[in-house]
Design brief:
The structure holds two protein chains of two kinds.
Chain A lengths: L3 E11 L4 E11 L3 E5 L6 H8 L7 E6 L2 E2 L8 E4 L11 H11 L4 H14 L15 H13 L5 E5 L7 H16 L3 E6 L2 H7 L2 E6 L2 E7 H8 L3 E6 L16 E6 L3 E6 L5 H10 L4 E6 L4 H9 L11
Parallel strand pairs in A: 3-8, 3-9, 6-7, 7-8
Antiparallel strand pairs in A: 1-2, 1-4, 4-5, 9-10, 11-13, 11-14, 12-13
Chain B lengths: L1 H17 L2 H30 L2 E7 L5 H12 L2 E7 L5 H14 L5 E5 L3 H4 L2 E5 L5 H22 L4 H7 L8 E3 L5 E4 H35 L2 H6 L4 H32 L1 H7 L15 H28 L3 H7 L1 H19 L4 H8 L4 H11 L4 H29 L9 H9 L5
Parallel strand pairs in B: 1-2, 1-3
Antiparallel strand pairs in B: 3-4, 5-6
Helix pairs in contact in B: 1-10, 2-10, 3-6, 8-10, 8-12, 8-14, 8-16, 10-12, 12-16, 12-17, 14-16, 15-16, 16-17
Classes of the chains: A alpha/beta, B alpha/beta.
């Protein structure tokens, strides 16, 4: 296992009336794309803010690049907050130069890099225009350039896909993959599982400030897989196979009429369900032990009270 | 590293402001406006005052007062006078009526009624369309007063020569003495300068304080502040911002002072240009180096005090609309200084002025003006500045604490209780 770029050990953060992050530990290896997943209010943004050092944990440690996190490392980190904006009255190039300067890049260097990135993102003609003259999609690109301009080794993105138009989602995804190939570590939060499933190498699923699953996508799924069976049956006979109502065998079912996604009860093996279905007279067309989608895993973990404290991945 | 980042913040605040149209317009329009308010009334007044009034003197006496009035009024060149004698009883009423009609019709501007008891009781009336003009009535009264006095003295047997000697014009020149020693400019010039300074400082503190507030809100609502706070301490950001905006204020003030110096140096040419014979009446104040140093010192300290408070106010709100409420406490600290200023100037060395010079929220406005008028000693100045420095220091510390927590709070405006809690709990960075 390669060197951990981000390491959280028992990190806890309280706000006045609630515990936003509770004894969270996680590690992000160098050069991977890491997804911080969870529903709203799971503590993703608070976690990210502690990683980029604008909040300090009440307890626990945040270690970046093998050393205690501090603002002195800020030139190694690119950060894109949620619900972002830019200085509306400033010119595009000036904003980018300023953002790079704020990360400790020299002015002349910052200008050179800004121009290069603007060309690359097809914004070369807009270099000296005011930010407010740009379309929202173009502003989003400029914000992203501002995040990566200083060539950081770690990029932290808070809900990067929120509010992007489809073209920019593609641009952002391509750039993230390209940066990863170049050795940059990317950590981002999202509650949109489809993107996470496609882009992430590893994920951490948070619910109520705690980690409920962590690891490679395949591992996380496996931890929650094998328990899921897709059943196809011919409609017409019994409306619902009676076994679906047997809580000892079936923990949960998503019934679509002639197709159902079944989650097996604890300790139940798939063949036991099959036996019950056959015994019940169901006319099966399909029986498949399925790997759940990340979305399914996420909803299982996050949905309802049962989400918290369920087995870790 | 920190210095370079702070410099980037200062530079951004300065450059983006100085380059705006607003900056150029305000820099030009303020001296233009001040110049206008100084010169235009004088110029217009000179023109209007130059117009000659046609009046009649309705003389019901047999004394020499009627002819004397006619002569003295005509001599000023301000009045064209015709005297009508009404020594026959009963004609007076008819004459008053017809003169009134002439005045209403605009053929005459007015007429003076010199009655029988004019010399004994001083009972003289003026009827005229311009009787509402305070200045013209003052001028008229001065001439009438002097003429009546002369006639009274003549009738009492005083010789014409003695009379001329006794009533020769007196010139009272007001020279203000500075308490700290040395003579300042003329009293009137100093008061004009004091007014200019107080209002300019007030406006500058208010406008640039607000500018800091808006800048904080912009960074907060766009979340740029998060990006910046992840790479520099929030205090660095706040102080950089305040220095950057303050530099714009100082830059603008120095342009204005420069305009003042140029106007003062060229005051003779200006007077000729404006066709105003009386240079002193232009009242363009000369700005001494000492006065400038005091003004710059108070602006800088006052600006740091107020703008950090405005920054803290900006940090606790989540939108421009909420800012209207949050900034009110800060503005309420700033306004009393300018509200009491006219009263202070009436009696610059009085208790009110002295007290307001020690209160750090009003001293930046009051003190430079009192210094210019010359009633402040070095000891008082040192105390006032000392208190202001101490308050500014405490203010920056408190504001920084509110700022660094406030800028990361979203959703709702912080309550007073929460802000107090932020101030109390120490929060390491």
């Amino acid at each position: 296992m390669s060197h951990a770029v981000v390491l959280l050990e028992g990190v806890t953060k309280h706000f006045t009336e609630h515990r936003a992050v509770d004894a969270l530990s996680l590690g992000v290896r160098e050069g991977i794309v890491y997804g911080l997943l969870g529903p709203n209010g799971a503590g993703k943004t608070t976690t990210i803010r502690m990683i980029v050092r604008i909040l300090l944990p009440d307890a626990g440690r945040v270690v970046l690049f093998g050393q205690e996190a501090s603002r002195d490392l800020s030139h190694l980190i690119g950060y894109l907050p949620e619900e972002r904006g830019l200085y509306r009255k400033m010119r595009v190039l000036e904003v980018l130069v300023f953002l790079a300067e704020a990360r400790g890049i020299r002015r002349s260097e910052a200008e050179q890099r800004s121009r290069k990135w603007l060309q690359r993102m097809h914004l070369g003609d807009w270099t000296n225009r005011r930010v407010e003259e740009l379309s929202k999609g173009m502003q989003q690109k400029v914000q992203f350039i501002g995040t990566v301009l200083h060539d950081p080794r770690l990029i932290v993105l808070d809900e990067p896909f929120a509010g992007l138009d489809p073209v920019n989602v593609q641009v952002l995804k391509d750039t993230v993959v390209e940066l990863k190939r170049g050795g940059t570590t990317v950590l981002f939060s999202t509650h949109v599982m489809e993107q996470a499933e496609k882009v992430c190498d590893e994920v951490c699923i948070m619910v109520g400030g705690r980690k409920v699953a962590e690891g490679g996508i395949a591992d996380v799924k496996r931890g929650h897989g094998g328990r899921h069976v897709v059943v196809g049956f011919e409609a017409g006979g019994d409306a619902v196979p009676p076994v679906f109502r047997d809580r000892r065998i079936v923990a949960h079912v998503d019934d679509y009429g002639s197709y159902a996604e079944v989650e097996l009860g604890p300790e139940v093996q798939p063949h036991e369900l099959l036996a019950e279905l056959v015994a019940g007279g169901a006319r099966l067309r399909r029986f498949e032990v399925a790997e759940p989608t990340l979305h399914k895993v996420f909803v299982d973990l996050a949905g309802g009270d049962g989400g918290v404290g369920r087995g870790e991945g | 590293m920190t210095a370079a980042k702070a410099w980037a913040v200062i530079r951004r605040e300065f450059v983006t402001r100085v380059r705006t149209r607003w900056f150029v317009i305000s820099t030009i329009s303020v001296p233009a406006l001040l110049f206008g308010t100084l010169v235009i009334p004088l110029w217009a007044g000179g023109r209007e005052g130059g117009s000659v009034r046609r009046i009649a003197v309705l003389d019901a006496t047999r004394s020499s007062l009627g002819p004397a009035l006619e002569r003295e009024l005509a001599r000023t060149g301000r009045w064209v006078v015709s005297r009508i004698s009404s020594d026959e009883g009963g004609r007076e009423r008819i004459l008053v009526d017809s003169l009134s009609e002439l005045a209403i019709g605009g053929i005459l501007d007015g007429f003076i009624l010199v009655g029988e008891r004019a010399i004994t009781d001083g009972a003289i009336e003026y009827h005229g369309s311009n009787a509402g003009s305070v200045r013209e009535m003052r001028e008229l009264k001065a001439v009438v007063q002097q003429t009546v006095s002369s006639v009274r003295l003549r009738e009492a047997g005083v010789s014409a020569v003695l009379l001329a000697e006794a009533t020769a014009e007196v010139k009272l020149a007001a020279v203000a003495l500075a308490r700290r020693g040395g003579r300042e400019s003329s009293g009137e010039g100093a008061i004009v300068l004091a007014y200019l300074m107080a209002f300019t400082l007030y406006i500058a503190l208010f406008v640039y304080g607000q500018s800091v507030l808006r800048s904080v809100i912009e960074e907060k609502t766009t979340r740029i502040v998060e990006v910046l706070a992840s790479s520099m301490r929030p205090e660095t950001l706040m102080v950089g911002k305040v220095i950057g905006v303050g530099a714009v204020g100082l830059f603008q003030l120095s342009i204005w002072v420069l305009c003042g110096i140029v106007a003062y140096t060229l005051r003779n040419q200006l007077a000729t240009l404006l066709d105003t014979p009386d240079v002193a009446s232009l009242a363009i104040p000369g700005v001494g180096l000492g006065a400038m140093a005091v003004a710059v010192c108070y602006f800088t300290l006052g600006f740091f005090l107020f703008s950090t408070l405005y920054a803290a106010a900006g940090a606790v709100v989540t939108s421009e609309q909420e800012a209207q409420h949050a900034q009110l406490p800060v503005t309420l600290l700033l306004v009393p200084g300018i509200l009491v200023f006219p009263a202070v100037l009436d009696d610059p060395s009085g208790g009110l002025g002295t007290a307001m010079s020690f209160i750090p929220f009003s001293s930046p406005i009051i003190m430079p003006a009192r210094w210019v008028v010359g009633v402040v000693g070095f000891g008082e100045l040192a105390w006032s500045i000392g208190i202001l420095i101490a308050t500014t220091g405490i203010g920056i510390l408190m504001a920084a604490r509110i700022y660094r927590i406030g800028i990361l709070m979203y959703g709702k405006r912080a309550t007073v209780g929460e802000i107090a809690h932020w101030l109390i709990t120490s929060w390491r960075t």
